[in-house]
Amino acid sequence: ENPRDLPNSTPSSAGNKPMNNPSAHEKPAVFLDRDGTLNQMVYDETHGIMDSPRRPEQLRLLPGAAELIRRLRTLHFEIIVVTNQPGIAKGTLTEEELDAVNARLAELLREEDAAWDALEFCPHHPSEGLRADLVGPCDCRKPKPGMILKAARERGLSLRESWMIGDGLVDIQAGQAAGCRTILLTKLKIEQIERFIQLDAIPDHIAPSLSNAADHISNHWKRPAGNH
Questions:
Q1: Active-site residue (options: 33, 117, 171, 204)
Q2: How far apart are alpha carbons 118 and 109 in whole angstroms?
Q3: Could you say which of 35, 167, 171, 204 is catalytic?
Q4: Is 35 an annotated catalytic residue?
């Protein structure tokens, strides 16, 4: 587990009941997947697959990414990015390259007046890689909730008041394991998703866009008194 706090970055599914505000010593957060949620995936010609960006110049924000973060900040959520980066274990990505990509992503968001509070990444792969110290089981690789739990401990977050947003099943599983509400980003309908999603990993909401995800959280969040 590796936190990345960039400078200048300003229980199970709970259904659709309105959320109460957290206690004074706990803060709500929205945990965001990175690749495919905030930024576009890129085509890896070597392996013929869509993969994470490996160079800063490959970074492209997805439509609505900055707006999502800005809207969540008006609701007083902390913004925490949680991302699996097994390329480090595989030897296809160095931590320095990952830092450069993350720095470029932060720069693109800042250009649109948006920023995260912290970023956590998992460098492990469960079964393969060139770095033996990073190959094998870990607690931080999604669908495990380790990155979310670590950020919650370190930052005093209320997980029952928090959300996890991502475009993959592992994001939903990690969020639910940590006790957050979850939003799956996809244009598929729930009837289609139920064909391949485990019944214990059905998200609280299915959003066709980041704007829709922001709308859903806003509609289910009781704003603190004086901040309407």
A1: 33
A2: 14
A3: 35
A4: yes
Dmax (CA) for the chain in angstroms is: 54
CB distance 163 to 181 below 8 Å: yes
Instruction: Express each pLDDT in 186-228 by its tens digit.
Output: 987 666 666 656 556 889 999 999 999 999 999 998 755 444 4
3-state secondary structure of 194: coil
Which ranges of 75-144 does DSSP label H, i.e. alpha helix? 87-90, 95-110
Q: Which residue type sits at 53?
A: P
In angstroms, rounded to a whole number, what is the distance separating the alpha carbons of residues 151 and 108? 23
Is 200 known to be catalytic?
no
Question: Cβ distance 157 to 40 under 8 Å?
Answer: no
What single letter denotes the amino acid at residue 174?
A: A
Tell me which residues of the chain have a pLDDT lower than 70: 1-25, 47, 189-200, 223-228
